[in-house]
User: Fold this.
Amino acid sequence: MPTDVRCLVKSDDPSGLVELVGVLDLSATGSLRGALLTCLADRGDNVVVDVSGLRVEEPAALAVFRAVAAEAGQWPAGRIVLRVTPEASDTAWEEAGVPVSRSLPDAFARLAAPGATALRADLEPIVGAARRARDLVTEGCGRWDLPAVAGSACIAATEMVNNVVAHAHTSMTVRLAARGGALHLSVRDWSKALPSFGGPVAPSSTGGRGLLLIDSVARRWGTTALDDGKVVWAVLHPDDEPG
Assistant:
């Protein structure tokens, strides 16, 4: 029989609460992955995922939570904690690969650990959007004592935003945060067209250098497809900057 997993946002709590109901098997992991990543991208914060009402048909399908956490972990925010039933055994949820709590208060407490708050700017695809993104990067690097990456992060932010202006033509959300001594930067838009990176371009080419610039300044970067758009992200580290 066809299976179904529905992802419902149940609360506007600052940490977020997402409830999953239905049946989870391997055939449902693709839709669940997209739904959870979209929830994380839209909230821009950590979330508690309540799975106490989810029926797991195939334990191997729990690996989808590990995959979601790994992908969203590259963004300025995106940690998740699962809230399971009090009767659930630890071994039953080991495959999920993310923290597990047996009550909502404990789950939210785990996400309340001290950390840098992400900065955010909601922008329209107009001239001047990249300048606003650079202002946000400069503010964040000053706030988190990361001056060494400010220049490179401004380059990455400019190219990400300009790609939205030139190609996606949608509104966008720019976020950044400091984690583990690095700057995490992302731009979320509402176009499902993914950027294509083909490496170096010919000197005579009039375009195609935006992603190359991001690749040259970031320790790592990538694109995450969402149900209704995408997130382009980059991680920049002071140790990678010229001395």
